[in-house]
Amino acid sequence: MSSSDVKNLRVVVLISGSGSNLQALIDGVTHGDLPIEIAAVISNRPDVFGLTRATEAGIPTLVLDHKGFASREAFDQELMRRIDAYNPGLVVLAGFMRILTPEFTQHYQGRMLNIHPSLLPKFQGLHTHQRAIDAGESTHGVTVHFVTAELDGGPAIVQAVVPVLANDDATVLAKRVQRQEHVIYPLAVKWFAQGKLRMVDNKTELNGELLPACGYQIEANEP
Ligand code: GRF
What domains does the chain contain, in order, with CATH numbers? Predict the structure, then answer.
């Protein structure tokens, strides 16, 4: 069997906004660094820039507007049906701003990733950059983790740590963190696609070794 016979991992990416993390994945595929096929991009919001990015890359898109559903359960059930129609091996949440039902997270357990802009378990939820500044943190960062029923609580895979500088405001700090998002999300997806990454007993295993609770840590010393 030649390497061209090896099927790339099928990935469905869920977005709600600008899709810069989606773009990092698209770029990884384009440059031959990421052995995946992005089978579809699904957004719960119409008219977001991430959908344009997908279309420009020739990726099928779907809008499933949560506002058209009577309940969170009904939306998640339909979303699951739509995702599964693409038969993905991995679901990637890339700025998908929805709280997920336990049925949904259970269905994709061990094969769904999220990116959260903090050094989890610190600063779960929103406004993480301002909260890190207000708390006087000297470092901040971003975490890619497996998704479980606990919001922003699944086992960490990889974290990038950045410094918090004296004159930072939330916007400046967010930009520093986002540059690292675009490094570590493709990295985690690549590990998964290569079969190096597994969720075992609510922990992360990389290359057959259990990772510490913070995942694989990368220090990014750029200003
Ligand atoms: C990122 O900051 C990510 O950490 C958070 O939502 C944002 C999505 O940005 N979960 P984008 O849509 O990928 O540009």
Answer: 1-108 (3.40.50.170), 116-223 (3.40.50.170)
